[in-house]
Every structure is written in structure tokens, then in C-alpha cells.
Amino acid sequence: MADPRLSRRTDIGDRIKVSFEFFPPKSDEMESRLWETITRLEPLAPQYVSVTYGAGGSTRERTARTVGRILTGSSLKPAAHMTCVDATREDVDAVVRDFASLGVTRFVALRGDPAAGVGEAYRPHPQGYSNGAELVGAIRRIGDFEVSVSAYPEKHPESSDFATDIDMLKRKVDNGATRAITQFFFDNDLYERYVERVRKAGIYIPIVPGVLPIHNFKQVANFSARCGTHVPAWLAERFEGLENDPQTHALVAAAIAAEQVLDLVERGIGEFHFYTMNRADLAFAICHLIGIRPQVRTAAAAA
Fold it and tell me: How big is the chain by its Cα radius of gyration, in Å?
């Protein structure tokens, strides 16, 4: 008898779309590692890859250099992150136009974390965009771009309730957002309930699950506490005792992420965004487990 599970079908990899997120390197060594990661993941033919963008001129310049190199040195389609942090409207608009002149057609529009760090109060620039919805509107006024925005299955830590949080998402959609990418989560039921809330609010853009492969459980647990992501007890238990065993830690992490993705596939989800942390190993292993294989291009096909 055939296995009824969708995730066991041999063609499942053809039905799933993935994208990868990178951050701009801060040193020559980090840049070398990033390009090793890009080279490893490029044959998986992701929908696109995104490059994060922080406050401060040097960070923004590194993002632009990374996006430019991806455009000229790979077959990947980069999406540039944009934030409102510590920038005037004129500065933000100029950066969007600069990216567009490089050939960028996708953006990820985020308000951004407070310049003082996660958990601190956010204060918009006096001459800047106040939130993600205003930023989306500005990007779409400049060009007909694909614009992804953030979504929070456990609500944004600064939101007083889900209604407030979802209202902000609706404002982003009304201003032209075409896709939402979620904060990472570890409980698929939370994601499913969130999507139900979003649909009841009249929001119908794709809500793409953001998946975080766990390279270091302790670091992920600490970051989760700061950004309001629940870490289930069963997840902590699976990594217990692996602090000094990186090989087993990596095997467990790949299995957990693949399990999460395959469960979402069974629930009808076909698109995933991986937060790679500029490392290819877990993202590549997870894609293999869910049926995504490197695309081999012959000379004739390329021609």
C-alpha cells in the first residue's frame, strides 16, 4: 500500500520552494565563509536569497557590496533588506534607488531593531519612516518591487496583543507588501493558529515560515528569550548533553528542522525561508531531507 503521507512522495522536492538569508560579512575570513556557503547552496536553485541590513553606514555598505557580488558572481536572485533605523526618508529612498540600479527587484522591508539592541525602546528618526508599513509604501512608490515583510506567530514582543500586531501586518499589505516571512518558531501549531488569525483579518498574502537551523542551542535559547520565541521543553531535552559534541549536535539539529518542515508540508505549506547564519551545512542537509537536490546544468542546457 502506498504511503499516504505527502512528505514521503518522491516528487515532494519539486513542490517545495525555499529561500535563504545571509548577513553581510564583517571581515575577510567571514567573507570567505559566506562565499563558501553561497557556492554550496546555489545549486539548490532557491527562489531568492536575502541579505540583512543594519543601522550604520559601514553595515549598509557591506550589504550593498554583498548584494552586488551575488548579482554579478552567481546565478542567485538577491533581495535586499531595508530598515528605518537611524535614517531619514531621503537616505532610505536613495538606498532603495541604488539597489534598484544594481538590478535588485526584491526587498525585505523591516522597521528594524532599536539601535541600542533588542529589548530597548525603539525611537524613529525624526525625519525617518516610523514603521514597517511606511517603509513598504516608500519602496513601492519608487518601483514595482516584490516586497516581503515580517510576521510574528507569537506576536512582536513590543505589541500589546495579537490584534495590534495583525493590524500592523494589514497596514503593510495595504501599502503594497507581497509576502510575509515569519520570525523563527519551533511549535508548528502556533504558526497554524497565527495564519488562521491572519486570514480572518482579511490578509491573503503568503505567510512563509522562517526556519532557524540550530547551530548552537544555548545561543538560540538566549536569543529566543529576548525576542519572545517559545522554546519547548522537548526541544531543550533533545540538545541536553551535546554542548561539547558538535557532530551529534549538528545531526540532531538537522533532524529537528527537517521534522518541522515536513510536518508543515503535511499541513499544506510549500514555501520556506531559512535563516542560514552564513553556514551551509544544516541548510543543505535539511533541503536534502525534504527532497531538494542540486540542479545540474549541462553545457547544452546552459546554452
Answer: 19
First to last CA, the chain: 43
Nearest to 13, CA basis, from 262, 182, 191: 262
81-109, pLDDT tens digit by residue?
998 888 899 999 999 999 999 999 999 99
d(CA 256, CA 238): 9
53: amino acid identity, one letter: Y
8-state DSSP, 8: G
Q: Which residues are catalytic?
A: 21
Average pLDDT, the chain: 89
Q: What is the number of helices (H) and of strands (E) in the chain?
A: 12, 9
Task: Measure Cα distances from 275 to 13, 49, 50, 57 in Å.
Answer: 19, 10, 10, 23
Convert the pLDDT of each residue in 268-283 to its tens digit. 999 999 999 999 999 9
d(CA 279, CA 291): 20
